[in-house]
Structure formats: C-alpha cells, structure tokens
Amino acid sequence: MTTSRLDALLGATTDLQEGVYIPRLKTDFIVKALDEDTLEKARAQATTGKDRSVDESLFNRLLIVKAVADPDLNDKALRDRYEASDAADVVKKALLPGEQSRVVQALLRLSGFVDDAKLIDEAKN
C-alpha cells in the first residue's frame, strides 16, 4: 500500500483548472489551482496597518487575479473600461460580490480546500 500512495503522490499534478460559469456574463472564467507560495504572497499584499490585519476583500480579489487564467484580468482594455488602477480593482469593479465568491470558492476547491466551512475560514485568514 505504501508504494501505491507514493506512486500517487509522484504522479500527481498541481496544474488543475476548471471553468466557473458567470451567469450574468454568460461565460466561463478559467480558474487554476494556486500553490502555497502564491497564497502567502497574496496574504502579504493584503496585510495592512500596524496591527498587521488582513483586508479580506482585497485578499479575495488578489486570489482571483492570481487564479483566473482566462480572461486576463490584467488586460489594459479591462483596466481602461472600468477605470481601474490594477487587476484587483478590475475584479472589484467588474464582478459582483456573489460572482467574486463563486470564483474564490472554485479556486480554493481546486487548491485542495474541500470543506465549505474551511474554505470560508481559509479565505478570511
């Protein structure tokens, strides 16, 4: 049994993607799994103030930017259309809160967080 577990780990891929349908836009966003380093960098970017608190909304928007493979949320046309300063601002201005939540849930699920309660806690922390 140990060999098959080892083989499973050796043969595993972290290059996971899935489409997340956004009904209002009538299209899928292609979302990919994120690794721990990417999650930590997003958390660091969203950490502010003397108390080092995490801005949960910004953290979620940064996760979306890093996980959405298509469309390219860094596209200049999107920034111009939404008068956004960066890709995270595009997410804030272009996607409704429920749409953002749908994408975050998918990217966390792809990244190995499978329990809904755990998804919410991890996104907040």
Automatic annotation (TrEMBL):
Protein name: XkdN-like protein
Superkingdom of origin organism: Bacteria
Pfam families the record matches: Phage_TAC_5 (PF08890)
